Each structure stands twice: as C-alpha cells, then as structure tokens.
Amino acid sequence: MVKLASGDMVRFGVDSGKALLCVIGRDDVPRIEKSGYGWRDGDTAVLTGSDVAMLLHVAMLPHFDGFVVEQGRAGTSSLVVATGCDDTGGIRMTLVGDTCSATLNASERVMLVEAIKSQVWRLFQ
Q1: The whole model's pTM is what?
Q2: How many CB atoms lie within 10 A of CB 8?
Q3: Where are the chain's structural domains?
Q4: Pairing with 93, which of 67, 75, 82, 107 sits 20 to 30 Å away (CA)?
C-alpha cells in the first residue's frame, strides 16, 4: 500500500484473473497505519482485464474525466478516474470510489502505471 503526498493511500494487486484497486482517503489513513489494516478498508474496485486496459489508457491522457468501473459487481465499489495537468505541466490523476478518493501527483501517477504494467500479465494466466 502506497501513502501519497496528498495523504491518501492506494493499493493495486492482481488475484485470480481480476485486479483490485483499493483507494483510502486521508481521513482514514491514521487509523489504518495504527491498526495495520487497509486492504479491507476504503473503497475497493474489482477490475476486469478491459477495465485495467482502460485505466492504463486514461492514466496516460493529459485531461480526461469520467472513466467509470460499474458499481454492482460482486465485492466492488464504483471507481471514477480523472486526469488533468498540474501547475508544472505534469499529469495528475484522481481516483474516486464510493466513499473516498485519492489524488496522485504526476510522479505518483507514473509509479501506479508502472506498478499496474508490472502485474497486468498475470491477468492472462
């Protein structure tokens, strides 16, 4: 689980043919850091292969609003992904779940993209 400069936390993992993206808002972070929990807290979106492909595509766009992972899949929250340019011209990304959100600066967005790229092959097994 990565703690972001914004104070939010994000976790990404691939398990049994699906990907999980967990978003934890900064209000819950101190409790989670103290208790050692996290994966079961926050909003967890269950992503299919096409969802992950779209997430990677959107993460590279300089401005995009509205990619949505549908709510209602078993064990998942909704996920809205938006990107935009920051003051330095870098691409920031916002992940919004049902109850919390996380903001990634340009370098954190790149780190998440690389983390996803390093694990996405597992969806093909």
Answers
A1: 0.86
A2: 24
A3: 2-124
A4: 75
- Taking each helix axis from N to C end, the angle separating 106-119 and 49-59, rounded to the nearest 10 degrees, works out to 150
Q: Report whether 10 contacts 29 (CB < 8 A).
A: no
Q: What is the CATH number of domain 2-124?
A: 2.30.31
Contacts 24+ apart (CB under 8 A), 85-92: 91/59, 91/60, 91/61, 91/62
Q: Are 4 and 108 in contact (CB under 8 A)?
A: yes
Q: Token pair for residue 100?
A: 């919390």
Q: Which token pair is 94?
A: 């916002």
Residues of the chain with pLDDT > 90: what percent? 42
Task: State pLDDT tens for residues 29-67.
Answer: 777 777 766 556 788 998 988 889 999 998 888 888 777
